[in-house]
Amino acid sequence: MDLKSGYPFWAVSNGLMQAFPRLEADHRCDVAVLGGGITGALIADELARHGFDVAVLEQRDIGWGSTAASTALLQYEIDTHLIDLAKRHGEADAALAYQACAEAIDQLQAVASAWRDVGFARNRSLYYASRRRDVASLEEECVARKKHGLEVELLSSDRVRDDYGFDAPAALLSQQAARVDPYRLTYRLLQRLQKQGASVFDRTRIEEITPTTRGVTLRTDTGLTVRAGHLVVAAGYASQHWLKKSVARNRSSYAVISDPLPESALGFLADTLLWETARPYLYARTTSDRRLLLGGEDDSVDIPAKRDARVEKKARTLLKRLKELFPELALTPAFSWAGTFAETEDGLPFFGPHEQWGPRVHFAMAYGGNGITYSMLGAGLLRALIERRKHALWPLFSFQRMER
């Protein structure tokens, strides 16, 4: 299935950075990673850096699925508020999830610091109340985050207007956020892995997975085999293809990006991620070349033709909504696109084995609004599982959570 519509900016601006080889012969490795997007790249990098012989297999070109369509806001804030997550899973686990996501921002900075051209920059996060009735929940959320050591400030409507130039009943300001070019980071990670001796194969379709007590055998559509000690399925929303029962619902999100703007025109948006309490929410971020990227208008459409037909209208709606906040900000839209993603009921990801496949087949389902943050955490969690070590986020991020 085509995972995106329109002209995703990352793919347009970067082009096809490198063609990796197809799998042309049977292969053996310690860990096979199925999926060559940002999730698979972060996981493969983590495993390879700790001594595992890794092979990455992607059915398209590298980074050409959901990664190319990602808007890549790096946040610790989960789509589900900490106070609501606590009602589902208990306060301790909810706080653990939020604290881990905050730490993941620093981990992503460490990973991205190897290159100057992946568009990584530290940002603040401004989360504003869309309606007056949302203020009480923001106040409660602020108290809960502070209780668990997260740096956050509640801003009044006057403070939002004076400091940020738009009207909102209240807002939460966090210092722990960032942005990145996910497509370019994916290529840089996998290029480095290849130079270090790991195997990266694109245009290689896996049609059959056969787990045993000692390993996993993958068979391609051309009849070749990959034998691995473990398999990590990191194929984005398409990972659900390998499960008999769905664990998330598919959604489409829409985005539009402007031509480059003068530094003076961007104001606080130059270093601040902007998003709101309404669901689905409008969000905005800038790029390293001073473009403003808007996203949102999510819907339940995951049929490519229907999603394609909605891109231009959704882009106009996003621009209109931003204009309502900032009437003086003049934008010239350059590209618009949409991408299909998956969303879990509680906003948390799934990492690790599923009972359908046994202990050697691991899933990396970094679903939700902060999937790249989850992917960074999942890389360490999966390495711990493969090394038979305990990890603090297990079983909160595992399929066991569904059995509670």
From TrEMBL:
Keyword field contains Endoplasmic reticulum: no
A family per Pfam: DAO
SUPFAM superfamilies (alphabetical): FAD/NAD(P)-binding domain
Alphabetized InterPro entries for the sequence: FAD-dep_OxRdtase, FAD/NAD-bd_sf
Domain FAD dependent oxidoreductase: 30-382
Sorted UniProt keywords: Oxidoreductase
UniProt name for this protein: Amino acid oxidase
Organism: Pseudoxanthomonas japonensis
